[in-house]
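Hey,
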Amino acid sequence: MGPLPRKLAYALNLLLVVVPIYGLILAYAHFGWPGLIAGVIVQAIFWGLVMYLSFLLPIGRQRYKKVTTLRPKIYEVLANLFAGHDLEGIRTIIDECRIKPGERILDIASGTGYAAIGIMSLVPDINVVALDLSRNMLLKAREKAEGKSIYLNLGDAEQLPYKDGSFEVVLSIFHLNLTPNRQKAIVEMVRVARSGGRVAIQVPRPFSPYMRRADWYAEKLAELGLIRIKISSNSFLCSLITAQKP
């Protein structure tokens, strides 16, 4: 399963809204006000639990490790539910980062290679390194790559196993919002970017005080001396922060 067209990704997002509303309508039609109230309570508990596990739970090492234990197939289904992981989102990343043939790209927390393989499909003759904590995710990425020259590395975003200035472009796509030490991970991203290289961070729009807004990431990049910092909307659900290392 690869990145979806944006219209299909938006349709899936719309279904997440329409189906619960339709369920409430059915509950009211069959059981009246008691059914509607019960339906609201059940959905509130369900979505409250989802929000807690996804966004409200304070980020820590335990949670970070749990994320990596997801089965690759489940990961891909969840990834496809959010616009920004779609083909148009990947094209936006390519345009904003000015990715060109011949460049070396690092995709941190690549999972099953959504962004990495998507970029390789759209830009010829580039070298993409996909890094993730989960061996199973990387094995799935290798399977999906279908002979493309993608380099798969097992490693931690907070301690990148690369020399300073190793990459023209360093990407973090839906990763830093799950990282225990976001600031350390950002420092590592900047460290492995070469002079003149670009750094891109894509995060969901914040649903809670525990999540950082796009301008927080922009401020951290500015503190590290990066220039040409830009915040753009990669979809209605997420923000893309790009910057250049001087």
